[in-house]
Design goal:
- The structure is a single chain.
- The protein is built from twelve helices and eleven strands.
- It is an alpha/beta fold.
- Helix 3 links the parallel strand 3 and strand 4.
- The termini are close together.
Length: about 325
């Protein structure tokens, strides 16, 4: 089990995210993942800087730790040709430590360019074409791509890493698992559901599974639980709802009746290591080998210190 650390842009300013990356590397985390949003989920989270400049800074501020987007949507707010170039550049800056995580996105972030919000099946068609275009550009020649939704006109990337960037595809059901198997190198999921691995393997997918869940480290368990609810209650809504709501106010309204005790299904809190290990075991039981934690709230330094002293050794002892 590789344990990762999340650079949660929705709750941290740009320079803080770079410092967090350094802290996570020093603590001994195995990898980093970075959210890629235009808006935060909730107004009180208070941030949402541009991910790609932050990743360039992370590439220079760290030296060992691999990192990836979790996840970028290359179908509306970004054109896939732009993402192909950005990912290639960050891979060069990081000397091959970067992977590109992609997904079909959320209305929260993608509606800002004024092109509407297509239904899920159309978004998956758009994502498939986007990945085909990205992979074509990474082959290094002049590229024309003519899809139903995606057009690339006489484009060439002049700076490419020797080894193509690995692509992870976020999946929530059979259609996206098939897409991950066809055009991705690994699968990204946020829930330890056996059906995801089964659908992915059945479709021919051979890559690893990368998961994520939120935590709040703190010696006051009740206060940590409340912080998780205040900042992450949107996570209790489920993916189908999360993908459709248009802005932070809608997420606030939809999650206003989520209680502290409802967060037990979403994350872990407190300073007792056993609940963290139990949640990781849930992911391991269905085939996940890499899981990133989202430390909710501002106290990333205390969490990284505790992780280095307690959590990471316990994960090694339990999972190897």
């Amino acid at each position: 089990m590789d344990l990762g650390f999340t650079l949660m842009g929705e709750q941290r300013a740009p320079r803080d995210l770079v410092r967090d990356a350094v802290l996570a590397e020093q603590a001994g985390f195995d990898f980093l993942v970075a959210s890629d949003h235009f808006h935060p989920w909730l107004e009180e989270q208070g941030h949402s800087p541009g991910t790609w400049p932050v990743l360039g800074a992370v590439a220079q501020a760290t030296s060992r730790i691999p990192f990836m987007t979790y996840v970028t949507c290359p179908i509306l707010r970004y054109h896939p040709a732009v993402i192909a170039q950005q990912a290639a550049t960050v891979a060069l800056l990081s000397e091959g430590r970067f992977s590109l995580g992609v997904g079909a996105g959320e209305n929260l972030n993608e509606h800002v360019v004024g092109r509407g919000w297509p239904p899920a099946d159309i978004r998956h068609q758009m994502l498939r074409e986007s990945l085909e275009a990205i992979r074509a550009l990474w082959e290094g020649g002049w590229t024309n791509y003519r899809g139903t939704h995606v057009q690339v006109e006489s484009a060439k990337l002049f700076d490419l890493p020797e080894t193509p960037v690995r692509i992870g595809v976020a999946a929530s059901g059979r259609q996206s698992c098939t897409l991950a198997a066809d055009l991705g190198d690994f699968l990204i999921g946020t829930e330890p559901k056996p059906s995801l691995q089964e659908d992915y393997r059945r479709a021919g997918g051979t890559g690893e599974l990368v998961g994520q869940f939120p935590v709040v480290f703190g010696t006051d368990a009740a206060a940590a639980n409340t912080l998780l609810r205040d900042q992450f209650r949107w996570g209790a809504l489920g993916w189908k709802v999360q993908a459709e709501l248009p802005g932070p106010a809608a997420f606030d309204a939809a999650s206003q009746f989520v209680r502290d005790e409802d967060m037990a299904s979403a994350g872990v809190w407190g300073h007792d290591v056993e609940p963290y290990l139990a949640r990781l075991q849930d992911f391991a039981d269905v085939g996940y080998t890499r899981v990133a934690l989202v430390q909710v709230g501002p106290d990333q330094e205390a969490f990284c210190t505790w992780a280095a002293e307690t959590l990471l050794p316990a994960v090694t002892a339990r999972f190897g």
